[in-house]
Design goal:
The complex is a heterodimer of chains A (about 260) and B (about 240). Chain A has helices at about 45-50, 85-95, 110-120, 125-140, 155-165, 185-200, 210-215, 235-240, 245-250, and strands spanning about 5-15, 20-30, 35-40, 60-65, 70, 70-75, 80, 95, 170-175, 205, 220-225, 230-235. Chain A has about 260 residues and is α/β, with parallel strands linked by helices. In chain A, the strands form three sheets. In chain A, strands 8-9-10-3-11-12 form a six-stranded mixed β-sheet, sandwiched between helices. The radius of gyration of chain A is 18 Å and the shape is globular. Chain B has helices at about 5-15, 15-40, 45-60, 65-75, 80-85, 90, 95-120, 125-130, 135-165, 180-190, 190-220, 230-235. Classes of the chains: A alpha/beta (about 260), B mainly alpha (about 240).
């Protein structure tokens, strides 16, 4: 059923202790979809993203990446993945961008970007360096390739983190509040890079509080509330007449 | 000042320098390797391995090194099982016994130092590595170990300096290292002050070289924490 879709998620449930954070969430992403996940803090959107790239293992549900299902089984209320190898491969096919960048502090910018291709994908180093430099050029930071993360601004670090994720040639890019840790004047440079990616046809799933991005760049908006999808649709309808009362109230906080 | 006596003492003591250096090199290498094994057990999450590692660290940090050395050198020989085993060809040698007890002891301390380094690795950096598909040994080799080693380096350099000094204890199990030879000289000449001053100067020099080497290594490995040369220059301007 999930053939050819870059990402398909069925009925994901996740609890931490007795607290159920995700209460059954499904999502299909077509090639080139840019999906914005909105919701108040605590609505489960970050947990949902972390469940998709298996940093958290869901208690129930199915995840398909490019037609391949993640194999796991449930036993005594716990979920166990069947193959760490498969988990590693699926993760390498999903590019993850974190709120606080999470660059490796002891490596230069270039080393950060080639780390995955060279050591996970085992590709020739020279080839990876050439590709990495092209990616850094694309995110506008190639002149800093021999600097260390601590020497860069937050916006620059986040652009490196995007290049690092892209270097794995992912099928889908996942963004976990990529601009929330940035000073307001640095948000724009990261959003521009994300917008360019979207225009190239990258499939993207973006947890964000940037309403302008959700409205103008994404082609689908999903609004989560208390671990469930409250409403979803095209941005024109979500931000227009089609908004649910809860979403209307939510975007009211952002001055819309 | 009897410079002639000092000079001849130096020459005699320096002849035993290879023994001291060998004690140091073997015990630090062996102890460091053992420490990696112990710390791996300690953080493995397995209760049996973890319990063993905890007990090991407690015993070897909690009891005097000199007593451990006596137990290895004088104690093990009492067991006929050991005297008859292939181990006996090593354990009857004072040098081997000294290396063994020095290594066992430093392994306990170093394991705790390495564990501190591992705990200081940011969870976020580990998560980023998992997210690109790293796990298991690759994750340890590429991300956790290099970062942990940088955190552990200052404390570990202190441990290595302590080891250099602890080799002096080997003289008490009849190893003719710098300290052992110094004591022999004193029993022949009764000139305690001069001989021990010479011995102390040799240890000081060794540790000076060692500390410089560690400082250099630390400087090289902490480039990522320093401001780039260009920036600091522009700040001054």
């Amino acid at each position: 059923m999930s053939d050819n879709l870059p990402l398909s998620v069925r009925n994901i449930r996740k609890s931490f202790g007795t607290h159920e954070v995700l209460k059954g969430i499904s999502l299909d992403a077509q090639q080139g979809d840019v999906i914005s996940l909105l919701g108040a803090s605590g609505s489960g959107k970050s947990t949902f993203l972390r469940c998709i790239n298996l940093l958290e293992i869901a208690n129930e549900g199915e995840i398909w990446v490019d037609g391949e299902q993640v194999r796991w089984h449930h036993k005594g209320g716990r979920t166990r993945v069947e193959s760490q190898k498969q988990v590693d491969r699926i993760r390498s096919e999903l590019g993850m961008v974190f709120q606080s960048f999470n660059l490796w502090s002891h490596m230069t910018i270039l080393e950060n970007v080639i780390e995955g291709p060279v050591h996970v994908l085992k590709r020739p180093r020279a080839e990876c360096v050439a590709e990495a430099e092209a990616l850094l050029e694309k995110v506008g930071i190639v002149e800093k390739r021999h600097a260390y993360p601590a020497h860069l601004s937050g916006g620059q670090q986040q652009r490196v983190a995007i290049a690092r994720a892209l270097a794995m040639k992912p099928k889908v890019m996942l963004f976990d509040e990529p601009t929330s840790a940035l000073d307001p004047e640095l948000v724009g440079e990261v959003l521009r890079v994300m917008r360019a990616l979207a225009e190239e046809g990258m499939t993207m799933l973006v947890v964000t509080h940037e309403m302008s991005f959700a409205r103008n760049v994404s082609n689908r908006v999903i609004f989560m509330k208390e671990g469930l999808v409250d409403s979803q649709g095209a941005p024109e309808s979500m931000f227009g007449d089609g908004a649910s009362p809860a979403f209307r109230q939510f975007i009211g906080h952002f001055g819309h | 000042m009897d410079f002639e006596f000092l000079a001849s003492t130096f020459v005699t003591l320096l002849k035993s320098l290879p023994t001291t250096l060998a004690l140091f090199a073997f015990s630090v290498t062996l102890g460091g390797s053992l420490a990696i094994l112990i710390v791996w057990m300690r953080v493995s999450g397995n209760p049996i391995l973890g319990g063993f590692a905890k007990a090991y660290i407690f015993v070897f940090r909690g009891s005097p090194l000199l007593i451990q050395m006596f137990l290895v050198f004088y104690g093990l020989a009492q067991f006929s099982l050991i005297r008859q085993s292939f181990l006996w060809s090593y354990l009857r040698e004072p040098f081997d016994c000294a290396v063994l007890s020095l290594a066992l002891c430093t392994a306990g301390y170093s394991a705790e130092i390495f564990r501190g380094g591992i705990r200081a690795v940011s969870v976020k950096e580990i998560e980023a590595a998992r997210a690109i598909g790293m796990s298991g040994f690759l994750l340890v080799r590429r991300i956790i170990a290099p970062i942990a080693f940088r955190h552990a380096l200052p404390a570990y350099s202190t441990e290595v300096v302590l080891m250099m000094k602890s080799t002096a204890l080997a003289s008490l199990v009849t190893v003719w290292d710098v300290t052992g030879v110094a004591q022999r000289l004193i029993s022949q000449t009764y000139r305690t002050m001069e001989v021990f001053l010479c011995a102390a100067a040799i240890y000081l020099f060794l540790n000076f070289v060692l500390l410089q080497a560690f400082a250099l290594l630390e400087f090289y490995l902490s480039r990522h924490r320093r401001a780039p040369a260009l920036n600091s220059a522009s700040k001054l301007a």
